[in-house]
Structures are given as C-alpha cells and as structure tokens.
Design brief:
Four copies of one chain form a homotetramer.
Chain A (H helix, E strand, L loop, with lengths): L1 H9 L4 E5 L3 H12 L3 E5 L7 H5 L3 E2 L11 E4 L4 H9 L4 H4 L5 E4 L5 H13 L3 E4 L2 E2 L2 H5 L3 E6 L2 H14 E8 L3 H31 L3 H10 L5 H12 L9 H18 L4 H15 L13 H5 L4
Parallel strand pairs in A: 1-2, 1-4, 2-3, 4-5, 5-6, 8-9
Antiparallel strand pairs in A: 7-8
C-alpha cells in the first residue's frame, strides 16, 4: 500500500479529516494542527468548529469533504452517530479514497467496530480502531492514552498521528475491534472503582471518619494514582456538576461492555451491579450528572443524605 | 501523663514490647531495633523469635515480660488471638504499667478495638489502634503506611515508633476503633479491585486479548499504581502460591468490614460479592492460595480453564 | 369492525391460521381443532405439521396461506423468527386481510410487540399480544394461562380462541406490548425462584439435609405449588435433560426482561444475577440443558460436585 | 428412657411448660390447652400471660417452674433470649428433670442449637429442635408447619404435642440443628421471593401495568399459593404496618442463614442481596415495618415514589 509508505516517509505534513468536534475532539484537533497537519473538520453543529478554523483547520460542510486526505479521524458520542456518518449513504466508507485510513477513536461497541472493519476492507480502505483514555483536559494537553488495533501497516501509518494526540500508544491486536474491547473493559474498571469508593466512603462516613480524611489516607498510600484521587474527590465533595463525562454515557459504555461480554458468554456480576447503579441514578433524575455520581448511591442506601 | 512527656523528651531509647512475630512482625521489630529501641518480643511459637534475638531483641517467655516497658505492640492474626493475649487472665491489660501504651497493629474488628480501648482506659493505660497497609517486604523495608487513632497524647507518644516502621502515618480520629474501620475499608477496596480485575481480564481474554497485554495497557495508563500492577500480575500469571496474604485471611477481613457495616446499617453489595467469592474459593480448595486468587473465579465462570 | 361482530356471533367455526409448530404450537393447534375451528398451519420445517394434518389441519406451503382467515396465531422461538415472518416482505402484515386479527403468543420483546402493533394498525388489521404461561404438557391439555392485551374489541374477538387453548385468560391492558411485559416479568420470577432454590438447596445439602427431603418440606408447606415442585424436583434430581425449556431460551427471556427494564430505567439486580447465571451455564457447556440447570450452579460454587 | 414410653402410652394429659409468650406463643399454648395438656407458662413480661391463665394455664414466676413437667417448649425472639433462659445460671438446662424434653421452636442459629443439644445431652435430658413455619393467625388456628429434628425417641415423644399445634410435622434429621438450618433456608426463600416480587412489580408498574392487576395474574396462574398472594399483596398495597414480622427480625434470620452458610462455605449471593436490602430498609427508617417492605425498595431505585 503505497500510501502508508508515503505517510511514514514524508511524515511532515499530512492532510487529514476529523469528524466529531466535542469536548474531546476539539483538543485532539488542536494538537494535530500543532503537529503541522492539515486538518479538515466536520461537525453536525457547525458553530463548534469555529475556534478550530481560527486555529488553522478547514471547515467541511459535508462528511465527504473530510474524507479527501490520507486519513480521517472519527470521535463521536455513540454507535448510532458513527454508524450514520460512516456507513450511511453519504458516509465515510463511500467517500474515503482507496488505501486511505479511517481512525476510529469513539468508544463504540465491539460489534460495530467489526462491521466497520469489514466495510472498509470491502472498499479497499484501511481501518484502525483507536479509542483513547483521558478526559477533556488530557485531550487538550496531548496526554491521552491511545489503545490501537488493526493491521500492522495501518497501525504503523497512524502512529505519527497518535503521537500528536497522546502520551502513549498501546497496540493490542491486529483485530481492530479488540481495541474497543480493551477500552470498554477499562471503562468498566473505572465504574467498578466508583462503586467501591462509594461503598467504602459510606462505611467510613457513617462510622465517623470524614470523607476527605478517608480519601486522603487511601490516595496517599495504596491507591496513590490520579484516577482514584480525581473521582474519589468528586464523590467526597459531592461535586457532580458540570459533568466531565455524563452519567448516560457511563451507562452506554457499561452496556456496551456487557453486550460484548454476553456475546462472549462472560458473566460480569460487578459489571451488572454498576449498570444497575446507573439505571438507578438516571431513574432518579441524574441525567445531567457526572458518571461519578453513582458513587453517591451507596451513601443514600445507608441513609446518609 | 508523665510517661508520654518522658517518651517524647528522651526519644532516644525506649523500652518496648512486641507481641506477635509473624511475617509482618519480624520486619517491624527489626526496624524498631535499628532505630535504637530495646525490644522484648513474645510469640507463641518461640523458634520464630530466634533471628530477632540474634539482632538484639530480648525473648519473653510470657506475655507479661513484654509488658514492662513504655509501650507494647501487638501484631496478631485475628480477633481471637489478640483477645486472648490482651484481655485474657494473664494478658496485656493485666500486666501493662499504669500510663503505658498498647499499640494495636493487627487487622481486627471494630468491636474488639472498642473493647480494648475501654479495658485499657479502665486500667489507667493508653491505647492506640494503628493497623498498617503493606505486605511483608514493606514491613521489612520500613515502608508501611500506618493508620493511627487514639487520644492525641497517646498518638503523639507513639509517633516516633511509627516513624521507625513506616513511611507515613495518618491520624484519622481520636477514637481508636476508627483506625480499624479505615483499615478494613481499605482491604475491602483491594478485594473489590481483585474482582474488577478478574472480570475485566476474563472479558479481554475470552475476546482474544492476552491477559498480560491487557494488564500492561491498564497499569501503564489510568491504573499506574503498584497495587494494580502487583495483584493484576498475580491474576494474569495465575500465580497464587506461595500466598503473601492467604485467602482465609482475606475472608476474615471482608467479614470484619461487613460486620462493621452491618452494625452501622451500611449495605455494601460489592462487599457482599467479594465475600461470596472468598467462600467459593475456599469451598473449592483454595485455602492455601493468596487472596488474589478470587480474581481467577470470573474466568472460571466464563468457561476459561 | 364487522369482522369482530361476526366472529362473536357465529362463534362456531372460525377459519384461522397458525404459524410456528413447536412443542407448544402442536398442543395449541390440537385444541383449536378440537374446538371445531378450521386451522391452516405453517411451519418452516414441514414434517412437524404432519400429525396436525392427520388431525384435520390444512398445511400451508407459505405464510400467506395461513393468513386467509379471520385470525392468525403466531408461536415462534424469538424476535428474529417472528419479525421475519410477520414484518418480512412475504409476511403476515402483507397478507392478512383488512380487519383480520394477529394473535401473537410468542415470548418476544416489548419493543417488537410495539412495532407489530403499529404495523398492523397501519395495515388496517387488528393485533393482540397473548403470550402464555405453561409448558408443553399444559399446552396439550388446554391448561395454559393466557396473558392478553390489545384494543378491547380485538381482545373480545379473540376470547373464544383463548378459551380453546387455556384454562384462564387475563386481560391486562389495551396496549398490546404490556402483555409481553407481564409475560417477561413472570419468566423473570421463575428464574429468580430457580436461583433461590439452588442456593437454599446448596445450603441444606452441605449442612447434611438430603435435597429431596428439603424440597418435600418446602413444597408441602409454604411453597405448595407446582412451579416450585416441578422445578425444585429437577434441581434436586439433577435432571436437566431433555430440556423442557432450553437454557439459551431462558437467557433470551431474561435478556428481554432486562432490555425492557433498561428502557424504562428500572434496575433489577436479581434479574442481572439470573442473567449472569445463564451466561455461566452456557459458557460451561449447558446449551442443551433445561433452564432449571442454573439452579445447580450455587452447589458448584459451594464445592458440591 | 422411661419417660418417652410413658408419654406415648398415656398420651392423654401431659404436664408441660412453655417459655416465651409472644404473638406466636399465645396461639401455640392455646392449642396445647385445648388438646388437654397442663401448661405452665413463663414470660418475662407477665401481663402477656393473663389471657392464657384465664384459659387454664398456670403462671410461672421463674423459668424453673416451667421445667417440672415432661417437656418444656421455648418460643423466643432470638439467640440471646434463648441462650439466657436455657443456658443461663437459673435456666432450663439446670432445672429440667432427667429424661425430660426441651422442644425448641424459636428461629435461632444453627450454632446455638448445637450448643443446646450438647448441654442437654450432658445433663441427661432430651432436646428436639422444632422451628415452625406460619404467622400468628396460623399459630392460633393450629395450622403451623413443624420442622423437627432430634433423636428418634425424643422426636416420637414430641409428636403428639406437634399435632396439637400444627397441621403437619416434617422430621428432617436426627441432628437437631438441621431443623434450624431448614427453617433458616425457608426464611431465606421468602426473602428471595420478596425481592423478586419487588423487582417484577417495579418493572410492570413503570411499564404501565397496575400492581394489583399484575399480582392477580401471577398468583392466579403459576404462583397460585398463599405466600405469594399475601406478601405480594402487602407489596402491591404498600401496607407494611402493623408488622406481622418486623424487618429487624427478617434481618436477623437472613443473617443467621448467611452465618450458617459461611460456616459451611456456601456462597449465597441472593442471600447477600436480601441482607443488603434489609440494611438499606433499616438505615432509612424501616424498623417498625413488616419485612415485606424490602419489596418496595426496587420501586424506589426505579424512581417510583
């Protein structure tokens, strides 16, 4: 595939597209621009792309216009959005050039990732699944963790782009959908952590230990890592607004993890518990809250506020 | 309390006792000796104390002989052992001097800690609960985390001793039993982590991602902290022998956490799930395994060996 | 709607179709024939309908031929089968006469039932959801319980047919899909019972009480009802083959219940637990077993065979 | 043992004692009196025994006075009460005659039952564990189900007394404590049923099916048995006061079942779930409610009132 060779050899300026400019996408595009790439951006609601245009990006009026380069990124909210923009009649598969590359960063289902891989293969295009770990500030700071999977040549071609957006890239398989599986398993791990923090803090608090004191002990000793500090802090402070990652998206991700698990016949009782917490949160008015808010539910069950 | 003043003022050599020389105690006493303290050690099976005697400790034939100093540490396996040695007819409460200090490092129930506090108070003695986080290598390296609670003067008096055995001391309350509650909540947090790692690895593995690869991604990115690396490694390698911390002790700790929670009326469904995993492990021959072995059960449920 | 009037007035002989001749359908059609109705039957694999033809039914080569009467029953294994035969190009909605009635007895999703209702409404046809409780022997003996929902006139028209196949009909709503919701909730109730019986029997057995003795006590006293006796007996006897209702169908039903619950934002932790049991059973080779076999899993977790 | 022979041969009038006159005991004593027995009753608060004295019972001022006959029943609220009255210094074991029989009907722990059996054996007395299923109206109507275990001669001697208080007696083992295990497993089964009814009703209700309608369908079809009708009715009506069996007693029983299960290493995840529901209920002000009130918690989690 001549394209990939060129991409690697030149490596200086690559024309790429980027579809989906939300809290994450805006930072990622910013870093791609800083790395010297020509980026054409598309978003359903056009006003979000204005600051990026000011920073040097080109605005696309249709998805097709973002598909003329060597690669196109997608970073969308869910399966439905990506399916429509990638597999729809006027979508990416139809417009991307032969040999060009679709880098799919959204947190989507394993099943859709498999279908995308097949569709691109059928169209003579390349496909890499590359979901990321990190919240919007990490995206803005080019500090994401990229979990990539796909055919080796395609992954190699994408590597310089990953270096522009993240601090580290993990190549986990040559089957693209397994990157999505790893991403979903990681979000499950965070959801499980939220439940464990919520239960432990309810116990400590009702026993008479102040929540912040308890968290300080844990995160200065055995759990001395930002993910515990940040989420534990949100739970201890009961600070769930504004949402960095909304509860309904948390439910979506755990649902996708459980769907993959069901297809593989892997029971995940803790996964089920986390899912049920999200349902309870959303059933009681938590739509606008950060997903960390499930960590408050054990306290409610314990009769604490 | 004159003793505490003296203890703090002199601060050079303090005569202390240490009851319970297991994998943890041996390291802790070693570090107390290195710090210049005179340590009289007692253990039920006497041969374990020989290396400490060679290192300068005095051997006690009875608990009483370990109670003649300014303070006595206890580091025992469970409630029954501590209750017998502290509250029994020939025990610590009977023999400890007025104003002297009992530093209780064992992972015991909140209820027993409360009873000990009352007994020492009644005898004109001081009592600090000071359970520790860390496995035997951390004890040997004076790298424990000490979670202390008790009356401020008693905690202050114990502080130089904590500095000899640990890297950091957290004072969480003036009610001693709350240190035990924090310790138990921390062990619950580890148990919950084991379950989450086990489920996620079963999902990844059955999907086609090698366990070690998966763990490398997680612990090089969002969960970059030793507790995930070490325990995750044990699960990924299926290396549960020899046990660093045996499964039956894990069950004991989660039972104590749930007992405290029940007394406080705090439902902990994830705690219950972890407890049930330990029962399943022990019912199927896992007595000799490290408690991390519960992390293998989700794989078995998923039909993976 | 003239049809319904006629149906009720004549009430003697009604021409109907029946699509889906499995273990349940064969008994239901037999009873419709006995009640004097003219029944045209369709099944994908034609050999299953031979005994019914001998009993007086007409064989349809295509679904369309089963759609020429006043009503057509469907009794199929899952959503996919019904969707294809009802909504497919050559399906029931296309061929059923104006004013004629589709009586949908399959255990399907709430969502598909809603879509069917809308499709029939759009085609000027009537639709009643009428899932049933009862296993094949009850179907053969006209002892089913029918849970019906739909517009009152349509339900009224179907009533004589329900009387031919069941011992009792419950009309739960004028929204057809709510009959499906009730049916799914009932199957969840049975699944929950299986789990409770399995756990209690594991406890009793490991304690030293023989399983059959234990079951005799329970089902001769507070749980004196066939559903506990029959399923409890299967668990006590470890008799899971041949399957009266296969485990993968049990998983399907609990999945549909949980899907409806998720759409409504109703957490069902016990439903999740039952679902995870089915996954564990199927992951460990239980595809061919009766769904009661999840009741053996607690014994395995307890180290009993 | 001459006593048992006599008891069986005469069978007409037996002098017995009865310790513990609560909602259950009052009905049981009434029926023993009706059967012609001489009953001496003891209760901590004496005013409760007045109606029984009017009906022919003798009042005992001390436990000892209830121990002079051929047998003494106990029907007490929990382990602590029975332990004190049976094993205490002035208790039943001390005062019961050689060869006389203690019939223990309380719902107590397996462990206490074992200790009582040993104590009576050591004192040359007989002991039968005979917990009962049934609520106060069943006790009044002599419609209890008696679950009995003990040495065959002792059980045989007690049989005429069981006939006076119940509709059916099940002899499950010659080890007394196994009757307690069966009783606890049965209460677990009811607790599990409450959870399943609560979840299913929350699903049905939020979907649009009225709770009473839903319950009518279930309990007129597959779950046509009083225990589902009565408890389901309490949940459907949200009628949890006055308590027929208080929530804190429900927690006690499930705790005892789980304690027996833990000793036997039997994981009971549904048992754990039910226990956590009781904790949640009690943490949120449900002390005075009937234990059926845990069946309302799924609706609250679903955002229904």
């Amino acid at each position: 595939m001549a394209f990939f060779t060129n991409l690697l050899e030149e490596s200086v300026i690559v024309k790429i597209g980027f579809v989906g400019i939300g809290q994450m996408g805006v930072g990622m595009v910013g870093n791609l621009l800083k790395a010297g790439h020509e980026v054409t951006v598309f978003n359903r609601s056009a006003e979000k792309i204005r600051p990026l245009v000011e920073a040097g990006a080109k605005a696309a009026a249709r998805v097709a216009e973002a598909c003329h380069g060597a690669a196109v990124f997608t970073m969308l909210a869910d399966d439905a959005a990506l399916e429509s923009l990638a597999l729809g009649e006027d979508g990416i598969v139809r417009h991307l050039g032969a040999g060009a590359l679709h880098i799919s960063c959204s947190t989507i289902s394993v099943a859709l990732s498999e279908r995308l891989a097949a569709a691109h293969e059928g169209a003579g295009q390349a496909y890499v699944a590359a979901p990321v770990f990190g919240r919007p500030p990490a995206a803005a700071a080019a500090q994401l963790f990229v979990v990539a999977a796909g055919k080796p040549a395609a992954v190699a071609a994408a590597m310089p782009l990953f270096e522009a957006i993240g601090q580290k890239t993990f190549v986990v398989s040559d089957q693209p959908q397994l990157a999505n599986l790893v991403k979903l398993s990681g979000n499950f791990l965070i959801g499980a952590m939220l439940e464990s923090l919520g239960e432990a803090m309810a116990l400590a608090e009702k026993g008479g230990v102040e929540r912040r004191t308890w968290l300080e002990v844990m995160t200065s000793s055995i759990f001395n890592v930002p993910v515990y500090k940040i989420y534990g802090g949100l739970i201890a402070e009961r600070k769930f607004e504004p949402a960095g990652f909304a509860a309904h998206l948390g439910l979506k991700d755990i649902r996708l993890a459980l769907a993959a698990a069901e297809a593989l016949r892997v029971p995940m009782p803790l996964g089920s518990m986390v899912r049920d917490r999200f349902l309870s949160l959303l059933a009681n008015g938590g739509d606008a809250l950060d997903w960390a808010a499930i960590g408050q539910l054990p306290a409610k069950d314990a009769g604490l506020g």
